[in-house]
Amino acid sequence: MVVKGVKNKKQKTIKKHKNMNALRNKVQLIGNLGMDPEIKTLDSGKKLAKMSIATNESYKNAKGEVVKETQWHNLIAWGKTADIIEKYLKKGTEVAVEGKLLNRNYTDKEGLKRFVTEIQINELLMLGGKEK
């Protein structure tokens, strides 16, 4: 539902969506797993799945040449989603995911501070056909 627009200095109407709060930290991606998922079971019994997916896009540059770019995304999932990932996903599987961005940092063995951006999966859809 669109609510009443607000005019800015250039008198353009800026429309606001009533449920914008639901979109504040939402990521949707379709890609292929770049590795078999890494599964960890914590002392509490809770399961964690870690994996990466590649998303591809192509465009034509100024010279008219087709340029293909691949972006890699780190994903994590907990609980039942991690169970499904462990059971059904492997390197090369095409998936659609929805989740939220998480940023964290840690200090590595050399004492350097490292920064990591991950997507915590809330929804997972396995794409492609059945394996033969």
Describe this protein's structure:
The protein is mainly beta and 132 residues long. It has a domain at 36-126: Beta Barrel (OB fold (Dihydrolipoamide Acetyltransferase, E2P)), CATH 2.40.50.140. It is 8% helix and 53% strand. The strands form two sheets. Strands 3-5-6-8-7 form a five-stranded mixed beta barrel. Strand 1 and strand 2 (13-14) form a beta hairpin.
What order do the helices and strands follow? EEEEEEHEE
Strand order in the largest sheet: 3-5-6-8-7
Biggest sheet descriptor: 5 strands, mixed, barrel
SS-based class: mainly beta
Report the total helices: 1
Query: Could you say what the CATH architecture of the domain at 36-126 is?
Result: Beta Barrel
Number of strands: 8
**Spatial shape:** globular
Whole-angstrom Rg: 20 Å
- Helix content bin: under 10%
Distance between the termini: 45 Å
Q: CATH top level of the domain at 36-126? A: Mainly Beta
> CATH homologous superfamily of the domain at 36-126 - what is it?
Nucleic acid-binding proteins
Instruction: Give the low-pLDDT segments.
Output: 1-7, 9-13
The proportion of residues in beta strands is: over 45%
Mean pLDDT: 87
CATH topology of the domain at 36-126: OB fold (Dihydrolipoamide Acetyltransferase, E2P)
